[in-house]
Amino acid sequence: MRTAKALALGLLLGTLFPAAAPAATDAVHQLGPRDLIEIRVYQQPDLSQDIRIDDDGTVTLPLVGRVPALGLTVEAFARVLSERYKEYLLNPEITVFVKEYHKREIEVSVLGEVGRPGFYRFPEKSTLLDVIAQVGGLKPESGERVIVLRPKQAGGGEADAFIVNAQELFTPTGVKTQNLELLEGDTVQVPRADQYFIFGEVVRPGAYKLEKGSQLTVLKAIILAGGFTEKAAKKGVRITREEGAEKKTLKADLDVQVRSQDIIIVPESFF
Question: pTM value?
Fold first, then answer.
């Protein structure tokens, strides 16, 4: 089966992949140095302008001065600007567009059952198939899932976990539907079968073996991971779990039984 996977990957990269790779959008692009952006302030033409983000990740704007943009999406940056301009305008309506992306690299961790696990820098807009190919492909003992853990993005939102079917990824349909575009800070985890994962505010986050027939609870899993950190939101633990063809995220009581491929996330407490 693994030989067939490797052959399928070669064929896809040589033919389908260039045309099928999903394009980046302003909604997911994180602003960075040298990006050229357009700022529109409704009914304020003197404040609307095209501006290139400085090397330190900031822009200097009329009235509000220097504003950090590094790592924000256009929507998040527009919200920041709206807050800044409230001091000078009544209910400011601001939109931001990217007119020119500055080519740069992203840092991605690739862990688990791949040829060469480690920390890598890839060209921006690299996809999951790009990365798997560059690190030597999947090992024969790799499981049926590839997990992409995405940290909380600057400007809002929460950490997220994407579960990709490894077998489907190497098909023409999978290239179109599951070949994620990776972002700065993503972790690609290729597990063996019968594992679970625990991320966030525990002492030793990562992948853990789930013994067959074991009655492992969420509490026991957290203990095996070294316990909660001081920042942990102990009542906010959640599990990302596949049920049939659907991925569900549910609040996890500490006595819930852990299943193979569960992703346990312990968030940070803000109090």
Answer: 0.46
Percent of the chain whose pLDDT exceeds 90: 52
Q: Which own/partner pairs from 225-231 qualify as long-range (CB within 8 Å, at least 24 positions apart)?
A: 225/198, 226/202, 227/202, 227/203, 228/201, 228/202, 228/203, 228/266, 229/201, 229/202, 229/203, 231/201, 231/268, 231/269
Say whether pLDDT at 3 is over 60: no
**Contact between 107 and 184 (Cβ < 8 Å):** yes
- Extract the tokens encoding 73: 């999406």
Judge contact between 12 and 175, C-beta under 8 A.
yes
Confidence band of 28 (pLDDT split at 50, 70, 90): low
CA distances to 56, 65, 78, 169, 194 from 59, rounded to whole Å, are 9, 8, 13, 40, 48
User: Which residue reads 């490894």 in tokens?
Assistant: 166
- CATH topology assigned to domain 105-266: Outer membrane lipoprotein wza fold like (3.10.560)
Over residues 11-37, the mean pLDDT reads 58
144: which 2 tokens?
């049926």
Cβ proximity of 218 and 181 under 8 Å: no
Pick the CATH number of 36-100 from 3.30.2130.30, 3.30.1950.10, 3.40.50.150, 3.30.360.10: 3.30.1950.10
